[in-house]
Amino acid sequence: MIRTHRPRSLDLLNTRGHRSGLALFMVIVVAHWAEHLAQAAQIYIFNWPIPEARGVLGLPFPWLVTSEWMHYGYALLMLVGLLLLLPGFTGRSRTWWKISLGIQIWHHFEHLLLLLQALSGMNIGGGDAPTSLVQLLVPRVELHLLYNALVFAPMVVAMLLHRRPRADERAAMACGCADHEDEPERVR
Length: 188
Fold this sequence. Notes:
Helices cover 61% and strands 0% of the residues. The protein has 188 residues and is an all-alpha fold.
């Protein structure tokens, strides 16, 4: 029998460090959301032209918005974060976390496709800019809002269920993320 051994740091992340790891991950995710929401407000509330609507950080650093490396890096960071934190989830929360992970795998693929086009100079459909597959149907700003919402929603459900597990889920948990461990389980 071949035994695989996870690195000690991964075990620590998904036991004693799970709550802190999730908190740090959510700070990154919420900051990214804030950028997308700021850009959407600039476009739909303040009526800025799309090239000028660059979010908060994109105003002083305009290259951030147009850098496929930066967008790909964030998509990869999300994918890695979802993978690294997965072992700490059990039961229903694990199912929802995996849904978020599955959607992020596709989101990452789309950003990889955009990055490869930017690097090669060959864009899908011969367009002027890199284009993702779903972007052929949905404009880029709206598509990024949609992808981030589709990844974020099941992530939030997973975290809520993880904080309030059923008795069987709590028994399988190796971390201390559950709220009120001394209270009896609520009827669900």
